[in-house]
C-alpha cells in the first residue's frame, strides 16, 4: 500500500512571515530592461498544489504556504510589502526565424528572495509584452509546468523550480474554453539568450553591455579574469554559457527529455531548463520523436536538440559580437561545445550502464544499445531501470523480454557483461529513474484536477521528487504507457 504522505503540508505556524524585502536587480539596471506593473487578479483562487521543498529552498517558511495570504499572493491577487512587480523585455529566434520583440507576455517577476532567487508568476495577466495574448495560462499547462519543474529537479537536471500552482474558475479561451491557473516559479535568474539578443538587435550597445556585465557579475564572476580569455570577459561568458548548455543537453538526451520549443527566448543564460510547454519524456525510444504537434517540420525533434542548442548559441554569439569584438574570437568561444557535449553525453550514458570510468570499446557499446533501443522501439525508461535491476539481481530475462530482436540483444548483452570492470548496480539505480512524467500520467492528473480533485497532482509530485526510489505500491506509475497515450496531442497552446 501507499507509503507516501499525500496530505499537503499544513501550516504549523500561521504567523510565519515571508520576507519584507523583495529587491530586483533587473529593476535596478534601469527602465530599458523592464516595465513595472501589477498582476491582474483572478476570481475565487484555490490551491492546486504547492511544494514545501521549494519554499524551503527559497528561504520561505513552508508554514506560510497554505495560508490565505500565500494563496492570494501566489495567484497575483495581492502583493507582500516590498514587492515591486515587473515584466522584462526580450526578443528571440522562434523556429529558426527572428521574431523581433517578445518579452514576459504573461510572466511577472515579484522580486528576489533573501537567497537571491527570483520569484515569478506565470499566467498572471497582460503586460506591455503580451502582443495579442491574454496574459493567462490554463490549468492543464500549468500543472504540466509545475510537475515537470520538480520532476527535472528530482532527476538532478538544472531547471527553474515551481513553488505552487493555483487555479481559478475564470474562463480562458484556447481551442476550447478552459480555466485559468498561475504557476509561481523560481530561478536564480530567468534571463534568456533573447534578453541579450534584444539589445543587440536594436544596436543599443550600452544596455547590451550593462546586461552582459550584470550576468557576469551575478552568475559568472570567473569570466572577469579567465585564464583562457584574459581581458575578454564576454568571450569567456559565451564559452561558459555554451558549456553549461552542453551539459544540460547531455542530461536531456540521456534521460529522454524532449523540450519541444527550443526557441532562443526559451534558452536560459544559466543553462537551466526553462518554459515547460509541449515537452515530453520519451515512451518508446524513437530518436526522431517530435513532441510538439505545432512543430510540423520537426525542427525540435529529440535527436536534433543538441544541434539546435548549438544553433541557438550562435545567435547568442551574434548578440555578444559587438562586445567580443571580432568574429574569430566569438567562434572560438563556441568551439568547446563540440567536445563538451559528446563527452558529457557519453559520461551520462556510462553512468546509466553502471560504469564509473571510461574503458576502450565503451563508445561502441553505447552506440550499440541506443541502436538496439531505436530499432526495437523499446520503452526508454523501463529498459534502463530493468537493466539496472538485471545487474543488481543477475537475471537479464526481464530486460531481454523488452527487445523483439533477441539475437541482437543477446549479442550486445554478452559484450556488455564481458566488459571489465563490470557494472555497478547502485550507480545504475541512481542514474536510471523509475519514474518520469510521462504524458499520460500528467494527462490523468490534469483530468482529475479539472474535476477539482488534486490528489493525482499530489501523488505525482511525491513520486517525481524522488524518481530513483522504489515507492512500493506505485508500480502503475512506472509501467508502460496505455495505448491511448500515443494519441495525446501536446501543442504550443497553453
Ligand atoms: N497567453 C499569452 N499571453 C500573452 N503572452 C503570451 C501568451 N502565451 C505566450 N506568450 C508570449 O509569447 C512568447 C513566446 O511564448 P512561449 O510559449 O515561449 O513562452 P511562455 O510559455 O509564455 O513562457 P515562459 O517562456 O516564460 O515559460 C513569450 O513572449 C510569451 O510571454
Ligand atoms: Mg517561453
TrEMBL record:
Q: What class of enzyme is it?
A: transferase
> Where is the sequence biased in composition, kind Low complexity?
7-21
Which terms are listed as keywords in the entry?
ATP-binding, Magnesium, Manganese, Metal-binding, Nucleotide-binding, Nucleotidyltransferase, Transferase
Enzymatic reactions: L-seryl-[protein] + ATP = 3-O-(5'-adenylyl)-L-seryl-[protein] + diphosphate; L-seryl-[protein] + UTP = O-(5'-uridylyl)-L-seryl-[protein] + diphosphate; L-histidyl-[protein] + UTP = N(tele)-(5'-uridylyl)-L-histidyl-[protein] + diphosphate; L-threonyl-[protein] + ATP = 3-O-(5'-adenylyl)-L-threonyl-[protein] + diphosphate
Q: Record's InterPro entries?
A: SelO
Binding of Mg(2+), residues = 266, 275
Top-level taxon of the source organism: Bacteria
**Active site as annotated:** 265 (proton acceptor)
Instruction: Write down the required cofactor(s).
Output: Mg(2+); Mn(2+)
Any idea of its EC number? 2.7.7.-, 2.7.7.108
Is the keyword Phosphoprotein assigned to this protein?
A: no
Region annotation Disordered: where it falls in the sequence = 1-21
Residues that bind ATP, according to the entry?
A: 103, 105-106, 122, 134-135, 185, 192, 275
Q: Which family does it belong to?
A: Belongs to the SELO family.
Give the matching PANTHER family. Answer: PROTEIN ADENYLYLTRANSFERASE SELO, MITOCHONDRIAL
Known function: Nucleotidyltransferase involved in the post-translational modification of proteins. It can catalyze the addition of adenosine monophosphate (AMP) or uridine monophosphate (UMP) to a protein, resulting in modifications known as AMPylation and UMPylation.
Q: What is this protein called?
A: Protein nucleotidyltransferase YdiU
The organism is Curvibacter cyanobacteriorum
What gene does the UniProt entry assign to this protein? ydiU
Amino acid at each position: 500500500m501507499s507509503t507516501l504522505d499525500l496530505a499537503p503540508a499544513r501550516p504549523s505556524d500561521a504567523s510565519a512571515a515571508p520576507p519584507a524585502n523583495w529587491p530586483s536587480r533587473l529593476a535596478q539596471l534601469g527602465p530599458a530592461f523592464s516595465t513595472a506593473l501589477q498582476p491582474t487578479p483572478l476570481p475565487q483562487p484555490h490551491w492546486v498544489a504547492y511544494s514545501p521543498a521549494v519554499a524551503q529552498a527559497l528561504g520561505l517558511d513552508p508554514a506560510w504556504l497554505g495560508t490565505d495570504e500565500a494563496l492570494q499572493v501566489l495567484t497575483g491577487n495581492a502583493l507582500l510589502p516590498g514587492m515591486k512587480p515587473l515584466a522584462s523585455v526580450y526578443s528571440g529566434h522562434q523556429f529558426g526565424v527572428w521574431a523581433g520583440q517578445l518579452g514576459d507576455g504573461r510572466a511577472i517577476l515579484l522580486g528576489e528572495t533573501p537567497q537571491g532567487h527570483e520569484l515569478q508568476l506565470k499566467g498572471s495577466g497582460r503586460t506591455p509584452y503580451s502582443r495579442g495574448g491574454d496574459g493567462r495560462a490554463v490549468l492543464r499547462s500549468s500543472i504540466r509546468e509545475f510537475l515537470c519543474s520538480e520532476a527535472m529537479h528530482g532527476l538532478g537536471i538544472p531547471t527553474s523550480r515551481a513553488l505552487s500552482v493555483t487555479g481559478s474558475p475564470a474562463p480562458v479561451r484556447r481551442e476550447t474554453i478552459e480555466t485559468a491557473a498561475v504557476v509561481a516559479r523560481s530561478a536564480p535568474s530567468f534571463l534568456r539568450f533573447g534578453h541579450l539578443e534584444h539589445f543587440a538587435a536594436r544596436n543599443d550597445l550600452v544596455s547590451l553591455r550593462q546586461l552582459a556585465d550584470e550576468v557576469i557579475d551575478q552568475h559568472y564572476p570567473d569570466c572577469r579574469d579567465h585564464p583562457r580569455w584574459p581581458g575578454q570577459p564576454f568571450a569567456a561568458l559565451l564559452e561558459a554559457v555554451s558549456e553549461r548548455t552542453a551539459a544540460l543537453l547531455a542530461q536531456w538526451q540521456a534521460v529522454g527529455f524532449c523540450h519541444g520549443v527550443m526557441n532562443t527566448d526559451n534558452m536560459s543564460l544559466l543553462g537551466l531548463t526553462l518554459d515547460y510547454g509541449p515537452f515530453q519524456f520519451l515512451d518508446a525510444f524513437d530518436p526522431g520523436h517530435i513532441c510538439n504537434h505545432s512543430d510540423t517540420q520537426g525542427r525540435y525533434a529529440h535527436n536534433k536538440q543538441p544541434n539546435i542548442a548549438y544553433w541557438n548559441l550562435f545567435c547568442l554569439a551574434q548578440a555578444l559580437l559587438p562586445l567580443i569584438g571580432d568574429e574569430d574570437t566569438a567562434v572560438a568561444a563556441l568551439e568547446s561545445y563540440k567536445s563538451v557535449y559528446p563527452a558529457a553525453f557519453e559520461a551520462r550514458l556510462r553512468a546509466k550502464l553502471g560504469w564509473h570510468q571510461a574503458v576502450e570499446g565503451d563508445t561502441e557499446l553505447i552506440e550499440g544499445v541506443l541502436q538496439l533501443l531505436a530499432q526495437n522501439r523499446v520503452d526508454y525508461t523501463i529498459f534502463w531501470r530493468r537493466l539496472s535491476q538485471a545487474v543488481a539481481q543477475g537475471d537479464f530475462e526481464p530486460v531481454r523480454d523488452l527487445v523483439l530482436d533477441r539475437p541482437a540483444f543477446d549479442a550486445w548483452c554478452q559484450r556488455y557483461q564481458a566488459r571489465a570492470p563490470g557494472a555497478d548496480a547502485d550507480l545504475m539505480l541512481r542514474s536510471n529513474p523509475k519514474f518520469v512524467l510521462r504524458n499520460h500520467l500528467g494527462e490523468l492528473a490534469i483530468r482529475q484536477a479539472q474535476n477539482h480533485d488534486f490528489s493525482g497532482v499530489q501523488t505525482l509530485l511525491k513520486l517525481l521528487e524522488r524518481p530513483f526510489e522504489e515507492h512500493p505500491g506505485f508500480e502503475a506509475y512506472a509501467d508502460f504507457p496505455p495505448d491511448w497515450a500515443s494519441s495525446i496531442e501536446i501543442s504550443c497552446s497553453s
